[in-house]
Amino acid sequence: MKAIQVSARVDQSIKESAQKVFERQGLDMATAIKMFITKTAYEQQIPLSVQETNRQAYPDNWFSDQRIANRDEITRLAFEKSPIQDLDLSKQEDREAFMQ
């Protein structure tokens, strides 16, 4: 397979910021770009979540103390009543039970 060179222009501060992320993952810029292009080619889709930017903001009272308390209580009750509390996911039979 003959390799070709691909180039793109990007703002220097964005490149440097991305480079730091790649380095934390043990990658260099070229490898990260090759991974992105290869995954796109194999999956025949862009491996990113592209979302509409025209989103509606949360209402002002969305994160009220009462709403947060209600959410926490629902979460507590769900875990308290959940049979998963009785499972040991290090055991094969419990993992199978969990997946059913």
From TrEMBL:
Family statement drawn from the similarity comment of this UniProt entry: Belongs to the RelB/DinJ antitoxin family.
Keyword Calcium: no
Stored PANTHER family: ANTITOXIN DINJ-RELATED (PTHR38781)
Organism the protein comes from: Leuconostoc falkenbergense
Protein name: Type II toxin-antitoxin system RelB/DinJ family antitoxin
Superkingdom of origin organism: Bacteria
Record bears the keyword Cell membrane: no
Keywords, alphabetical: Toxin-antitoxin system
Signal sequence bounds: none
Regions that span the bilayer: none
InterPro entries: Arc_rbn_hlx_hlx, RelB/DinJ
